[in-house]
Design brief:
This protein has about 700 residues and is mainly alpha-helical. Among the domains are: about 190 residues, no CATH class; about 60 residues, no CATH class; about 50 residues, no CATH class. The strands form three sheets. It has a two-stranded antiparallel sheet with strand order 1-2. Strands 3-4 form a two-stranded antiparallel sheet. A two-stranded antiparallel ribbon has the order 5-6.
Length: about 700
């Protein structure tokens, strides 16, 4: 039955993609058909995932269906865990897409629906693939779907660049996985994953493990391969960004979990590298998210941050595997999986709700979207709860997951290798700093986008539907999940324990349940948390404080007082809302100017007479020697260091090599034979060194 549900979902998605490719988006029925198919297929996928988690593992051989080796499907609890997450998110994201695509003009031509359904099918196939060829076939299909979604709009050259960069990093990811798979398959003499568990420890094993970490890390946004996320996600149309960021990226984490269970003990140097790079990735992502002025880039950079935090949890699990400490493996994988869950739900909610803002107002500028939550009650509420989740604030699932991450890092005293201890200590410091900056980043979004005073013109036709009935249902499910998953955390952990059983025994993960409602970081006699009781105690505390305040104020607390909202004390900042999203993040720009490569400039515009009014006079007073009647504008920008100092020089060097290679096209035959001999000798030396 589990396989039948999965096959039915794939057939439904294929039919929906065919409708999009044949009929296009000109008629309402053809625009909506792919996303209705997405809802139906995702519901079946969810049922398949739950059955796989709670039932026995099943291995299905399909013969030579794909033409190379034996095509195999492996339905076990780990695959079921990620299938459940994929299916559940597929239902709500598809619901948002139904409402978003309904108005004429938002979708043009063909490709968006087909690309989205290809993404769902590719993710599902990756999760159940039991052999290398099936896995890589689905992995490359996912890369194609990313390329299609990032470039389907064809609005400007930036989208073309985004689609090509997305495709390029996707090919780097696929190449790393291909080489790693070939090394393991060559030693095991089989393409079936299960046979790779018998590959002995050694140089080949360690190199293959590292290649797989690079391949999966490129998909999730590991530094320095994260450059495609900030441009690839915003280029995708509407809520399909939610599918890319909250749904499809999880295959990278699934791959890391799966091959930890297959390959076993990693080398110490790889574990330390994952811990350090994961911490750096988290900090780089959140710092650049905080100083962005475009909403979609803020959300995209925060995906880099979340990927780094998840990889730190995975690094803790690697440390446990390196030292044969099953408890440390369990606490690391549990923390990372909870963070995957929190990120998937919250990031999907952020991208889905912001798609309605941007589509109605034609911009994603934070300065122009201030106070949008007052007019978009459903989208604004979903956006606010998702922001609280990613800020790691109680009582959301983001708080629970980040608590587990920090508690997992505190278990370093259980690891008796100095290098691993230092790596966990470094990662802990970076994650702690990241969590602090994340609060600054997402409170900025809540304060200005959701709660701020609107500066956009009042359009009576705007937000009439506020995502429509179907889209509202999807947003409500995502928003309530941010809270419900936290309240039900003990039961969520029981389900995760079953799902992680192919990697670490379920009883080890279930050690996180100190009692039916109290959680601990797997190990006893450590700090505890009860998110379920939080939902009882916190409302009672708020009610008690409110009643006491009302009694002590003798009713004056209920009197309405009108004051300027979010007003800045700084001179030279105009408008009723003097404090702006740009100004809120300016502190971080100054403090981390060297890291961000901040560039500041002042532009002074001289006006005639009183033109520019009070605002111009106040601005002029802040700059010595500025004449009255001048308008002073401060501009600030940041530099993406990895792109600027790594990829651009690498591109210049590659072009230089290509120009030199052109001279070889008109050479002598004996020279070509000599080149081939040198390359062959080098390859033979590499192969000999790995044996």
């Amino acid at each position: 039955m589990t396989a039948a549900f999965l096959l039915s979902a794939l057939i439904i998605w294929a039919a929906g993609a065919l409708v999009d490719l044949v009929a296009g988006a000109n008629e309402r029925w053809s625009r909506l058909a792919p996303y209705i198919a997405g809802i139906a297929g995702s519901a079946l996928l969810t049922a398949s995932g739950v059955r796989a988690v709670l039932g026995p593992a099943r291995y299905l051989s399909l013969g030579t269906t794909l033409g190379v080796g034996t095509t195999s499907i492996h339905l076990d609890p780990l695959a079921g865990l990620f299938l459940t997450l994929t299916g559940g998110l597929g239902v709500v994201i598809s619901a948002c897409l139904v409402s978003w695509a309904r108005p004429a003009g938002r979708l043009r031509g063909r490709g968006t629906g087909a690309g989205y359904l290809l993404l769902l099918g590719a993710v599902s196939t990756v999760l159940v693939a039991g052999d290398a060829f099936t896995f890589l076939f689905a992995w490359e299909s996912l890369t194609v779907s990313f390329y299609v979604l990032a470039g389907v709009g064809r609005r400007d050259e930036n989208e073309a660049r985004a689609s090509w960069v997305t495709l390029g990093i996707g090919k780097v990811s696929g190449a790393a996985l291909l080489f790693g798979f070939l090394l393991l398959a060559g030693r095991a003499h089989s393409y079936v994953f299960a046979s790779w568990a018998h590959v002995p420890a050694g140089t080949l094993h360690d190199v293959a493990f590292a290649l797989l970490v690079v391949g999966f890390g490129a998909k999730v946004g590991l530094v320095p391969l994260q450059v495609w996320l900030p441009i690839g996600y915003p280029a995708a149309p509407g809520p399909t960004r939610a599918a890319m960021a909250g749904l499809a990226v999880n295959v990278g984490f699934y791959g890391l979990w799966r091959f930890l269970g297959i390959l076993g003990r990693p080398p110490v140097w790889l574990t330390v590298a994952v811990l350090a790079i994961g911490g750096i990735t988290a900090l780089v992502g959140i710092v650049f998210a905080t100083v962005q002025s475009g909403l979609n880039r803020v959300i995209a950079y925060s995906s880099v941050e979340n990927a780094g935090i998840i990889l730190v949890g995975y690094g803790v699990a690697l440390a446990g595997a390196t030292t044969d400490n099953r408890g440390v493996v369990a606490v690391g994988l549990l923390a990372a999986t909870l963070q995957v869950l929190a990120h998937a739900v919250a990031k999907s909610s952020l991208f889905a709700s912001s798609a309605f803002f941007e589509s109605d107002f034609g911009t994603d500028s934070l300065e122009e979207l201030r106070g949008i939550g007052h007019r978009y009650r459903f989208s604004g509420t979903a956006f606010g709860l998702a922001s609280l989740t990613l800020a790691g604030l109680p009582p959301t699932i983001g708080f629970v997951s980040e608590w587990f991450i920090l508690e997992a890092l505190l278990q370093e005293f259980r690891v008796h290798v100095l290098a691993l201890r230092l790596g966990m200590a470094l990662a802990g410091a970076l994650v702690a700093l990241t969590v602090g900056v994340a609060t600054l980043c997402f409170i900025r979004l809540i304060a200005f986008v959701v709660l701020g005073r609107s500066v956009a013109p009042q359009d009576p036709d705007a937000a009439v539907g506020d995502a429509g009935a179907v889209g509202r249902a999807g947003l409500v499910l995502m928003a309530t999940s941010c809270l419900a998953l936290s309240a039900a955390a003990p039961w969520v952990i029981r389900f995760i324990a079953h799902g992680l059983s192919p990697v670490v025994p379920a009883p080890a993960v279930s050690g996180a349940l100190k009692s039916p409602f109290v959680l601990q970081p797997v190990f006893a006699n450590f700090s505890i948390l009860s998110p379920s009781w939080l939902f009882i105690v916190m409302p009672m505390g708020v009610a008690a404080v409110a009643l006491a305040a009302l009694a002590l104020s003798r009713g004056s607390l209920l009197r309405i007082r009108r004051v300027p909202a979010w007003r800045s004390a700084s001179a030279g900042v105009g408008g009723d809302d003097s404090y702006t999203p740009f100004g809120y993040a300016n502190v971080l720009r100054h403090v981390l100017a060297n890291v961000l490569g901040s560039r500041r400039s002042t532009v002074i515009t001289i006006t005639d007479g009183d033109e520019g009014g009070e605002s111009g006079d106040e601005a002029a007073e802040g700059v010595e020697g500025t004449p009255r009647g001048a308008h002073v504008e401060f501009r600030s920008s940041v530099v993406e260091p990895i792109e600027t100092y790594l990829y651009r020089p690498a591109k210049a060097g590659w072009l230089w090599l290509a120009k030199g290679a052109k001279r070889l096209q008109s050479g002598r035959l004996d020279a070509y034979v000599g080149y081939m001999l040198v390359v062959l000798v080098i390859l033979l030396a590499i192969v000999a060194a790995m044996k």
